[in-house]
Design brief:
binds iron/sulfur cluster, single chain, about 300 residues, 10 helices, 9-stranded mixed beta sheet, two-stranded antiparallel sheet, about 15% strand, alpha/beta
Length: about 300
């Protein structure tokens, strides 16, 4: 069931996920924006507005402010947005207790996990997003796990100071008891600057067909394939923090409901690091009593199914 509408205001709007935004500006038309807001009101959808890094005309802002919404923006442009997308050059200016998305490469993360330390001290939540999951190789398992453990120790140091910072790839699995995926194509769609709906921004920038528009509604072919209950590998998985990115699935396996090996291994390494984190936190006091993350002997659930 649809719950969220993402509105990309411009082709150059900040990228907060596994895709590259357009290089050129292409602002959504005022009419398309109005239609989308009306659609969201009628369907009772939560609206996420994704901003470019330039000032929009006043009439655009008035329409946007006519509905409750969450703002995504580049941290160097709008420090007051709800979700800030940042890079290391911006970090000195990030407001205290922000929610911040940082996109990074896998190799950079393995080689320099310490770049995140200043953020742990000041933000409420850090979402680390790997922008090149397909480059992950099995020989990176040890280095990736080491980087996760390095961050775990830094987070625990913050906990000792009563700073309960959240980091998606490590702390989310501690509290989740079921999947908390992106669910694009099932719970959310994106309105692109061309006035059409797409499964998510990655499908728009990747040249996929639109799946409707605010006047005709959302029409996703084989829409059941975007649901967890039609994802045979994912529905038997307990890496609950995984995005279960249907765009990456399509890129890697040509099926939106079948994940590639790399996405699964990365998310299981995170899951296992969360288990180690839980054990370490309990050394300093009672934490989530009754919560356990079981031992597993695989990093890709496909191996479990094969067995
Ligand atoms: S780790 Fe793999 S199997 Fe598990 S939810 Fe993510 S993509 Fe699906
Ligand atoms: S499917 Fe979800 S996780 Fe993947 S790129 Fe789109 S919005 Fe991001």
């Amino acid at each position: 069931m649809l719950k969220y509408l993402v509105i990309l205001l411009d082709d150059s709007a900040v990228s907060y996920c596994h895709y590259e935004s357009g290089k050129e500006r292409k602002l959504i038309s005022l009419e398309a924006l109005k239609s989308a807001i009306l659609f969201a009101m009628k369907e009772n959808l939560n609206v996420h507005i994704v901003w470019p890094d330039y000032e929009l005309p006043k009439d655009y802002k008035e329409i946007i402010n006519g509905i409750d919404h969450i703002n995504f923006a580049d941290a160097s442009f709008a420090h007051d947005a709800d979700i800030l997308v940042a890079n290391p050059l911006d970090w000195d200016n990030i407001p205290e207790k922000s929610v911040v998305v940082v996109k990074t490469g896998i190799r950079d993360f393995i080689e320099k996990p310490e770049v995140f330390l200043p953020l742990l001290k000041r933000v409420a939540r850090l979402n680390i997003l790997f922008e090149d999951i397909s480059v992950f190789k099995d020989e990176m398992v040890t280095g990736f796990s080491y980087a996760l453990d390095f961050l775990t120790d830094a987070i625990i140091e913050q906990y000792k100071k009563q700073n309960k910072v959240q980091v998606n790839i490590l702390t989310d699995r501690l509290i989740l008891d079921q999947m908390n995926n992106c669910n694009a194509g099932d719970e959310s769609v994106t309105l692109a600057p061309d006035g059409q709906f797409y499964v998510c921004p990655a499908f728009y920038f990747g040249g996929e067909k639109s799946v409707g528009n605010p006047n005709e509604g959302v029409h996703i072919k084989n829409s059941q394939l975007f649901r967890l209950d039609h994802a045979p590998i994912c529905r038997n998985c307990d890496a609950y923090q995984c995005n279960r990115c249907v765009w990456l699935n399509k890129q890697q396996t040509l099926e939106v409901n079948t994940p590639g090996h790399e996405q699964c291994v990365i998310c299981h390494l995170e899951r296992n690091a969360s288990k180690r984190m839980l054990d370490k936190i309990r050394e300093i006091g009672e934490f989530l009593p009754g919560k356990e993350i079981p031992d597993i002997d695989y990093l890709d659930p496909f191996e479990k199914i094969e067995k």
